[in-house]
Design brief:
- The complex is a heterodimer of chains A (about 325) and B (about 260).
- Chain A is mainly α.
- Chain A has 14 helices and two strands; from the N terminus they run αααααββααααααααα.
- Chain A has a two-stranded antiparallel ribbon.
- Chain A starts with a helix and ends with a helix.
- The radius of gyration of chain B is 19 Å and the shape is globular.
- In chain B, a hairpin with a 5-residue loop joins strand 11 and strand 12.
- The chains are: A mainly alpha (about 325), B alpha/beta (about 260).
- At the A-B interface, helix 9 and helix 10 of A face helix 2 of B.
Chain lengths: ~325, ~260
């Protein structure tokens, strides 16, 4: 119900504000004046925002269980940066069609996660989860620097577009983008749901998870691959959007408890709504221009991060 | 034998020393095996080797006669429960939720919790005297209660063998005794148990068999009265001791102060 409400709000907001009546006419009557905006712009946009937001949220939840740190999420662990770099390389070198950009982003995200993992180990011994996070931020910053360099060196026409996309924007939403995202996200989302119980055990620590019968190595690889692919699909379609996976799982855990079988679906729903609403804000505050939605999520996410950081260190 | 370790050799790093150098240990039904030894003698390493957490350089572990490698993780966990030394909860669950995690190996990835799962969780909670605590958050529990939750979670696995690594560390006398009494009770019902402990004297009163480790090797193995000998334990713990007998005839170790002499 609430999710449907958010979707409606998301469709009403925008450079051209619509009334609920116009929205309804636009959906049922293809010849209405608002039909064009609604059918080709607003509808795919809110659906994409919902799916990408939901996916980023469950990625955050899964990564938090995996690295046993409530501060983990795709952006802070460097996955988004790696995916962005992979996508920029593919676009910059004109290697990939829009359907294949997620594959390049996936490769980038995997490379980033492997690097982060490597950095956080010394002689095969895993370090404090906080070191992992630090490694994630560093790898993310490095990937962003490389991306910026590639953008600056590439031809000027594409430059502004790519730059806006990087900041996280749903302005390029289309039915095609929605299709691309769905194509790459269905299987990893299903795998995450199948691993909900394994995630509950991972939260207890790898040894305990092993004792209780979980195949820890397999779960870990599954989570890294699925979150990398989901992040890559999100980055390829709407750029780098941070902090969704940090804010929402934290709130959901407080309300519905930490068990992933309940927590993951609610995280998906709430994160989806969160991004739809954040996008509605992004489109309305500086009308008729619009902010990249990644700026809005960062403005909300950074204070939450600061609060969580203080609490975990206390 | 439920779980059997044969001549295990374990090394943590390729050039490092052997953490375990040819140790064997078997746990049969109705047996309570106590593993004692100084810090760093390989007690925890033995346990880790027996459950497949530490790679074996040589030797073999068998569960119900079958090599460890032929068991799937979940099937192994339904026969062997482990209460490890330490564990921190990241997100505080309720007590009954935490114990339900012991049913993981019996539940599929998507299967709903069945009547059988609920029954086993209730039995485990009652067993460990936690029924009245079932809706409490584990973050609100005392050390002794938390330890009982972890034992209950292992019991919810309905294992044939239970391995406990220093289950009574940091517990007061009452909780310590309750844990040992509980284990003894379970063992008398047919469970096989292995307890790693520094409480030598309690171990001697509860164990059916004892294993003394020192520097990764077995120094002595047998009934408590065969193992509790001055000439065996003094070199292991590198401290003068006397062995006395308690009312139930169990041998007890009394560490001596410098200069004390005991005539036997």
């Amino acid at each position: 119900m609430i999710a449907a409400g958010c979707l409606v709000v998301g469709m009403l907001a925008g450079a051209v504000p619509l009334s609920p009546g116009e929205l309804w006419r636009g959906i049922v009557d293809p010849s209405a004046s608002s039909a064009e905006i609604i059918r080709n712009l607003r509808l795919p946009r809110v659906f994409l925002a919902f799916l990408v937001g939901g996916s980023l949220g469950v990625c955050g939840a899964a990564l938090q269980a995996l690295v046993r740190n409530p501060l983990a999420e795709p952006y802070l662990l460097g996955l988004s940066g790696g995916a962005g770099l992979g996508a920029v390389v593919a676009i910059g070198l004109k290697l990939a069609s829009s359907w294949a950009v997620p594959v390049a982003a996936f490769a980038g995200a995997l490379a980033a996660v492997a690097l982060v993992y490597r950095l956080s180990q010394v002689e095969g011994r895993r370090l404090d989860p906080r070191v992992l996070l630090l490694a994630g931020v560093v790898v993310g910053a490095f990937a962003t620097a490389l991306m910026s360099a590639i953008i600056v060196l590439s031809d000027a026409v594409q430059l502004r577009n790519v730059f806006l996309w990087l900041l996280g924007g749903l302005s390029r939403s289309s039915w095609e983008a929605l299709g691309i995202f769905l194509f790459y996200s269905i299987i990893p989302l299903g795998l995450l749901v199948l691993n909900a119980r394994s995630l509950d055990l991972l939260v207890l620590g790898e040894e305990t998870a092993h004792h209780l019968g979980s195949n820890v190595e397999r779960t870990r690889i599954t989570i890294y691959l699925t979150t990398a692919l989901l992040t890559a699909a999100g980055v390829a379609t709407c750029g780098i959007i941070g902090f969704v996976g940090l804010v929402v799982p934290h709130a959901v855990r407080r309300i519905w408890g930490p068990l992933h079988r309940t927590m993951l679906p609610f995280t998906f729903l709430v994160s989806g709504c969160f991004l739809v609403l954040a996008d509605a804000v992004a489109r309305t505050v500086v009308r008729p221009a619009e902010l990249p939605v990644g700026i809005v999520t960062a403005l909300i996410g950074v204070p939450v991060f600061a609060m969580l950081l203080r609490r975990t260190l206390a | 034998m439920i779980l059997q370790a044969l001549d295990l050799r374990i090394r943590y790093s390729p050039q490092g020393p052997l953490a375990l150098d040819g140790v064997s240990c078997g746990i049969g039904p109705g047996e309570l095996v106590a593993v004692v030894g100084p810090n760093g003698s390989g007690k925890t390493t033995l346990l880790r080797g027996m459950v497949g957490l530490a790679p074996l350089e040589s030797g073999e572990v068998r569960l119900e006669g079958q090599p460890l490698g032929s068991w799937r993780r979940g099937d192994f966990a339904r026969r062997v429960g482990v209460v490890s030394q330490r564990e921190e909860m990241l997100y505080p669950l309720r007590v009954n939720e935490a114990v339900m995690l012991g049913r993981y190996a019996s539940l599929g990835p998507l299967a709903p919790v069945s009547e059988e799962d609920r029954r086993q969780v209730e039995a485990a909670l009652r067993r460990c005297d936690l029924w009245d605590f079932r809706t409490r958050r584990v973050s609100e529990l005392s050390g002794g209660e938390w330890q009982r939750v972890r034992v209950a979670r292992a019991l919810a696995q309905v294992p044939a063998a239970l391995l406990l690594d220093e289950p009574t560390t940091a517990l007061d006398v009452r909780h310590e005794m309750e844990v040992f009494e509980l284990i003894r009770q379970l063992v008398s019902e047919g469970l096989g148990a292995m307890v790693i402990t520094h409480h030598m004297n309690l171990a001697a009163r509860y164990a059916t068999r004892m294993l003394v480790l020192s520097a990764g090797r077995t120094v002595a193995e047998g009934a408590p009265e065969d193992v509790f000998r001055r000439e065996i334990l003094e070199p292991v713990f590198q401290w003068p001791i006397a062995v006395v007998r308690w009312l139930d005839a169990a041998p007890q170790v009394v560490p001596l102060r410098p200069g004390e002499v005991v005539r036997e």
